[in-house]
Give the backbone structure.
Amino acid sequence: MRAALAPGVRLLRALPRDSRYRGLTLVLTFLSYTSYHLSRKPISIVKSQLHPNCSTLGPNPHNDSNSTTWCSWAPFDGDNYKELFGALDNAFLVAYAIGMFISGIFGERLPLRYYLSGGMVLSGLFTSLFGLGYFWDIHVLWYFIIVQVCNGLVQTTGWPAVVACVGNWFGKGKRGLIMGIWNSHTSVGNILGSLIAGAWVSSAWGLSFVVPGIIITTVGIICFFFLVEYPEDVDCSPPLHHTVYDEDPGGVTTSEKDPEAVTSNEGPLSLSGQSSVDHHSNSPKEPAEEPEAISFLGALRIPGVVEFSLCLLFAKLVSYTFLYWLPLYIVNVAHFGAKEAGDLSTLFDVGGILGGILAGLISDYTGGRATTCCVMLVVAAPMLFLYNHVGQNGIGTSIAMLIICGALVNGPYALITTAVSADLGTHESLKGNAKALSTVTAIIDGTGSVGAALGPLLAGLISPTGWNNVFYMLIAADVLACLLLARVVVKEARGWCGHMARQRGFKEF
């Protein structure tokens, strides 16, 4: 007797063909970038094990020395260990920032499936090589620096590839909610990376790198076999492409008729390909018209690009300082063990997921991307101050403060890298130029990556003077990020005032 068709299979068969492949693309790109961030997180967890408090372990069992660093891992056993940790972070992040500006160029000229899967395999290799330094008993600083630089360069293959691939399938809908959920891969990867690295940090810290390296390599191989770059490759219909634009109060563009429909052929949730109606019913001359790629200076002239890029620089500075230094801060201030500190630090990323979704919802409802970011940044500054002074008074207080700070810090970061980048990349003046969004995204993310490199470096230089000074630096960066959006916020406010004046006397249904 033959069994009935499995419920899951029946569900898949009930879905339209296009929906099945779009779902597959979303899942694969989500898992891909999750694994990228998963492989970046171990260094922040392992720091506390590379230079632990040896006095808690008793005297040196190998000799009678009273050294308090006998259990530390050379070359991080000196008094300058925080500066060396900062150098490790900076080696990765500077290479990442430089590579991000040129990664999009290669991504546009190579098959996305090869580019993404190859980058993931190489990322797995260099992540594992860092951990193998434990098993090979390597104590040379330059080995770890070179591995970090190489890993930073190959990790730049991730973001341009997943954005372009998702952009080939999905429309840039107005709803930031969808983008916020999809962009949670960053925080999910950080959480998983912390938990996985924490499982081995106290016993064999090398496995804290080797296991994530194996995971990202495995996901890269899966993408190589299953990722579909374009709808046409599997005989799916290309998405509709609308050219009707309506400028919202903030000066960014949205589709005038259907907020869920496509307004651009790139972006975190945008569709590639031209309208089947436009291209099949119009004259044969249409396909021959190829839009020219926008220049770097041309992209900078798009209203809002400079402001949001500089804002992301400081927002990412704060976010990545927490990413790389929060576990060590918890160990030093709250006196938790390395594993417990790593587990507790994941709550910051839990808040980041909630903050990204909340920022998307609020910005959709109000139509003010810049205002949403500015308000969250303003509130984040005093919350960072409170976390540093009262956040360690109890486990309950620490959990609540970490979630709140994570939401307020990562909310604007998530909104700018997704919805804002897509809006600016499909500005009304571009007329849907597909190549413009790639350049705009590279400028915004590349500038933000500069801040990501500066934050951990400054934390390494400032932390020897006290953790209070590190938090003052983070608060100052938050305030600067907010001030840089002042012009766009004023423009949004004027837009709202004008809209209210036009709507006065009318009831909206």
